[in-house]
Amino acid sequence: MSESQRPKVPDWVRSGRVPALDGLRGIAVLLLLLRHSVHTNGFTVPLIPQLVGPVELAPDIFFIVSGFLITLILRRQYARDKTVSPLAFYKRRFSRLFPPFAAYVLVIAAMAAMALVHVGWPTWVGTLTYTLNFVPQRDWELGHFWSLSIEEQFYLIWPVVILASRGSPLRLLIRCLVAMPVLRLFVWGFHPQHLDMIDSWSPTRADCILVGCSLGYLASNERFLRLTAHIHKRGLLFAACAVGVLVLSETLGWTITAYQVTVGYSVKAFCLGALLWTCVNSSWGPIYRLLHWRPLVQLGLMSYSIYIWQQPFLNPHSGHWACRWPANILLALAAAVISYRFIELPVMRWRGESTRASEPLSPVPMTRPSSAKPCSVPHVAAETCARCAIPLGAGEPERVLTRAG
């Protein structure tokens, strides 16, 4: 294959922010708020409880985005240094995630000391050791940290795996994906009393993280890029098919336990993986516009604080006015804004990180790209080439000005 026929590796694989991820996080946190809201006092919107009540997609979207993004970060480090430093990685993850978490835990501890809430010692131990996903009975105020525990366990293991596999763990990822349904079937068959825990145990709920990690490695694979080269042209159709399969799979999972326990989680992971790949490769059209819509992007930027602080306000077991819809949504968002503004942003600035939304690595058109070929002049600084009048990103210019944070 000639050099000109080789599929182009996306620029964000090697450097810069990945486009659309903040928008995806925004969608995930909206689904989280909606799913928790339907069970709170005062929620009277018709049909919504029936549509979203049984569905739990928000944690899976966060899992797949985390697996994808963390793998890209570690791959960049390995490509640059021919190694990864687990200690440096742990330090950065800790400084990013711990301050908002600690602030919330301290507030709950103060409320527990004043007998405003009750949190048992198993929940406290699981929360503080990031093993809450293995605790069967979790108190509400800290119960949502089961998903954070899964992510923290992934962060602990993944850099070591990459280092041990010399930067090429793709075969291991595939083997683990194949093993997931078998492991869940084993738990169901031999330990049915633990069936409810399949949904939160790391070894049985890792499908989405594994698919995200796999996409992080396939992002520069020539064969994979060639197979998915036309997704950006048919992104809406491809996304609609993935959503259709996802809805069908979730419907089967609600009614057929054997399907959900075995391959239901895997099908969900692959559908969300297809949606993720479509989103990060969409540079025009409705998917692009949705995922770069400012309010949605801002929600995505604040998603970690929203995830943390929505829990006490969206408590379905409380009759307090602060837990009544829609006041509970406004209060949860207000608490999240305070956390983001006074904890997350200062920490990110201290770490030298950009606080801007994820942007495409080059200015891209909001309408379908022109079929005209760009000129041969290297496009370096101007958003539109003065010679051929084609917006940068519309064709395949030799070089574009990056704007990534």
Main features:
405 residues, mainly alpha, globular, 2 domains, single chain
Helix content: 55-70%
Number of domains: 2
Q: Helix/strand-derived class?
A: mainly alpha
Distance between the termini: 34 Å
Structure commentary:
The protein contains 16 helices and no strands. With 405 residues, the protein is mainly α. The model is unreliable at 357-405 (pLDDT under 50).
List the helices and strands and how they pair.
Blueprint: H1 21-37, H2 48-52, H3 58-81, H4 86-113, H5 121-128, H6 140-143, H7 145-164, H8 170-190, H9 207-218, H10 222-227, H11 235-255, H12 257-280, H13 285-291, H14 294-301, H15 303-313, H16 327-350
Helix pairs in contact: 1-3, 1-14, 1-15, 3-7, 3-9, 3-12, 4-7, 4-15, 4-16, 8-9, 8-12, 9-12, 11-12, 15-16
Summarize the model shown:
With 405 residues, the chain is mostly helical.
